[in-house]
Fold this sequence. Notes:
By secondary structure, the protein is an alpha/beta fold. 43% of the residues lie in helices and 22% in strands.
Amino acid sequence: MKRRILLVDDESAILNALTRLLSRNGYEVLTANNGVEALALMEIESISVVLSDYKMPMMSGTQLLTIVHQQYPETIGLIMSGYADFNAVVEALNSGAVFRFVEKPWHDQQLLAVLDGAFAALSARQRKASYQRLLIESEEALFEIDAGGDIHLINPAAVILCDATEDAVLGQRIDRVCPLLDDEQLIDLCTDQQEMLELADIDNSRSLRLVVKPLATDRWAVSAQYRATTSLGVSELLTREQLMSYLQNRLVQMDNPTTVIYLDVNGFKRFNDSLGFNDADCLLAQIAAMLLEDKPIDSQWGRMSGDEFALVLSGHYAAEQIETLATQLLAPFEGLIAFNDQEIHVSFRVGYAVSPEDGDSAIELIRNAQASANHCKRGGRFRAQRYQVDKNSPDVESMGLQSDLYRALERKELFVVYQPKVSLISGCVEGAEALLRWQHGRQGLISPMQFIPLAEETGLIEPIGEWVMATASSQRRIWQAEGLPPFVMSINLSGRQLQDVSLISQVENILKQSGLAPDQIELEITETFLMQDIDHSIGLLQELKHLGIRLAIDDFGTGYSSLNYLHRIPFDTLKIDRSFVSGLGEQRESLELIKHIIAMSRDLGKKVVAEGVESQCQLELLRDLGCDEIQGFFFSPPVSAERFRRLLENQPLVGVEYRGSSKFAATGLQL
Ligand code: C2E
Ligand code: MG
Ligand code: MG
């Protein structure tokens, strides 16, 4: 390739003479009569060496080369002038804008020698720049060390590999920051001029591969790569490093978009706890083998960390296609899977990212796909369908509980009980809360406090929650048909149900099937869930309100809502958490807080219900504070549908003086 040079001089005789000399010696020459012309030319031509006169109209040679140096830092600038001008260019020489001063009149051979030097310096600069780019962009960890093994230079990948800051690594000996490496081995490697060293962990689970290259000085460039020697022993399942480099190569070599689907096994920690690490690893291997069974064409699976897997797919997938694909991939996990002597249920959080929109490097794409899987519960940009989960629980015993819960619905072990909410004005039942119960075949009655979190974690809460809604509303409809007094049926919604895209249509169906007026149904959502993703919650509650149903904020006082938010949330009822009610009469703060909550609800025009009212004293305090309804053992625990009917038939409930009547009833509640 010809060496290209730009000559700048306002004397055309000089330009002509130099052009002749340089063209004869194999240069490709471009010319400009002044600095402005030169800069315009540089914008359109690729020029790496500029030889300029010093004294020119409009712009001096040093001014020109200073601008060139700023705009094209790799370019080499040379000044040609009479010796008298030397002092004027010293500053530009010192600043690096001018590489050499060439005296006029020139000697041809001397000038050619100076130009040789300039081009040699140019290629050194270019090599250095591309080495630096390589260093920065390389996925491989690169170190530059001296003969003693001390680190003088590292790239970002090496900083990650060492899991420390750059400052902490620089100056250290390489064996200190690269576990598995023995300093002597490395020094041997450098002095013996070997190229490569492979080291492995004692248990052979991890290996370190070092490639060592001597640099011009007595330094060595070391590239280091840790690799898991196998990924769970499953062939075709790449290690993290392998998948990252597969992905990076795809992104660099092909212009096609690439999709990464990221899977995170739900609650895998519990498997580790209940099965032990060895069996839990066997389970992961089984999961991996099941995932690989139906591998899409032109795709690659990798294990990213303990219980996280990623699939690299060629092509750009739309949200619905991802959902269809993920459904296919995860179809084998829909039911229970046999593992050792038991049956377990495994589910995943799924996220994805697509290049180039969501990242054009392997690190970025994987990070975004992983983040979207992490946020899967909260929805957002990469919301992928959520899948039914795994096993958990602290021991094999409760692990059984999880598989049992999976079957509980079909075995008809779940049932609903109802607890009245009584008006403090009339003593009548104004509402009922439907509460779920599980009559386990071997273990007897299990509390929702125990199994609802399990159902949440496994995703089973979605079908179970839908069943509770259907059961409670059809029961409410039966009582209505029997001519019993009307009341509002409240049903609890879990956080996970709030994220379920089909929630609105489920509620619509239930209203249609039960034939109930929408304002006869109230959905209770805990304050904590509401606050987790307030913007999403508000949007969803508005949609629910649109259907005409009532909404209650449950366990209020525990979730630190701010008043700002309460104004924005479209709710009808506030339920004061039991913990404040039980503190009534004993703790001054509870009384103050309840007073405040009631006053605030008044201002907002909302109804207030107190939960967990157990004593007459609590009831009277609440009544005097202006609370609308109470729910609690004082009137009735949650009871079967049968017993609840009797409550409805025997209203008003007696035992207290209500705000609306001056009468004291004499006895306790009759069921
Ligand atoms: P929650 O929605 O706050 O329901 C009130 C809980 O307080 C019920 O517990 C009820 O039995 C209990 N309770 C009522 N009055 C008193 C009282 O005077 N004293 C005491 N100590 N407790 C009282 P339960 O039935 O054990 O339910 C616990 C939680 O489980 C519920 O709290 C609710 O968050 C959840 N849950 C129950 N059923 C469902 C359901 O169908 N779906 C969902 N997502 N969650 C449910
Ligand atoms: Mg509730
Ligand atoms: Mg509650």
